[in-house]
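Render this sequence as a predicted structure.
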Amino acid sequence: MNSGTYIFQQLCQFLPKDYFEYLVDKYDGNKYLKSFTCWNHFLVMLWAQLTTRESLRDIIGSLNGHKSKFYRLGFGKSVCRTTLAEANERRSIEIFRLFAERIVEMAQKKIDVDDLFIEGIPHRVFALDSTTVTLELKKFHWSKAQNGKGGIKIHTLFDILTSIPVYNIITDYNIRDQSVMDNFQYESDAFYIFDKAYVKLPSLSEIDRIGAYFVVRRKKKMNFEIIEEYSCDGREDGVLRDLKIVLSNRWAKVRYRKPLRIIYYYSEEKKCVLEFFTNNLDLEANKIAFLYKCRWQIELYFKWIKQHLRIKQFYGTSENAVKIQIYVGIIAYCLVALIGAEFRSKLSPFELLRMLSVSMFEKENLRMFLLRAESSENLQSVTDYNLKLF
C-alpha cells in the first residue's frame, strides 16, 4: 500500500467497485442524483460510519475542512447536506443490501478458519439472534408500533469463529424472532445456537435433516418422555442431568419426531439451572453447555456496533435512510475484519475499527499502520465489554 495515500483510500481499495457499479446499473442508482453518484454517496456514508459521525450536519461540518481531498477520497466535487439527505431517501436499499452481502462473503473467505477452533468441538459454530433498534413513532412514522413503541429488528446469523455477521435481515419491530429462521441458509456439520425465542420445531427439524446440529434453550411446558439417562457429575462441570428424550406434547411430537438430549446445567454466577435441547447425541454435556455460552459473542457484537457505529441514531427518518445506514454499518465492520485478515493482524475487528476511526485522513502505509497499532500499549481490550453469561 502506497504511504502517499490516505488510510481511507487504502481501505476502499479492498472494495469490489465493479460489483457495486453493476448493482447501481441494475437498480438505476444514479437516476436522480447524477452529480453525486451512488459511489460518492456510499463512500461518504462509509466514512461517516467509520468515524461515527452523529448527524448529517456533523458529516458536512467535519468534511468541510477537507474539500481539497474530496476527489482523491472519492466523495465527488462537493458534499452538501440536502444532497446527502436526498440520496439516503431515494436510492435503492437493494444496492447497499447486496453489496453488504458481497463484503460479508469476502471477509468470510479471507479469514482462515483452519486456524480457528473451539477445543474439543470440531465443528463450525453459529449463533442466531436479533437486536432491536427503538425508533420514535412521531419521527419514523413508517415504523410498526408494538407496546406503544416503534422500531426495527436486525436478525443476524453470527459466525462465532470468525466474528462475522454472515447473514443479516432487517424486519419490523413486531416480527417474532422465530418467524425468520427459515430465511437463513444453514450448512451441514455445523452447530447453531439459539435462545428460547427460536424454538420452532419444523425449522429445528430441517436443521437436523441437513446434518447440522442445534443447541436451544428449553421453553416452559415443553414436555417429554425420558428414553435414557446418562451419568454425569455436576460437582466438576455444572452438568446436573443429561437425558435422551422424545417430545411428548401433542403437536410437538408430530413436528419433531426424532430423539433429543436435554441437559440441565447449573450456573454458579446466575444461581439458576439452565436447560438446553440439542440433537447432538454424542458430544459431552459440558461442551454443549459451553457452546450455549458462546452465544454471548453475538450479544457482544450487537452491543459493540451500537456503541461504536451509527446503528441507533440515524441521518434520516425515512425507512430507506435507516436501512441504508445499517447496511453501510455492516459493510464497515466486515471491511475492517477483511483488512485484519489480509494483513494477518493480531487485533480483533473491534480493536481495529477503534484505531482506524481516528486515522482516516492520515497518510501512512496501511500495513505499517496496523503494525504500529498492534504495538500500542494503550489498546482497550474488547473483553472490557464482555459480560458473563454463566
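Summary. The beta strands are 124-135, 150-159, 164-172, 190-194, 213-217, 224-230, 239-247, 260-267, 272-278. The first strand starts at residue 124 and ends at 135.
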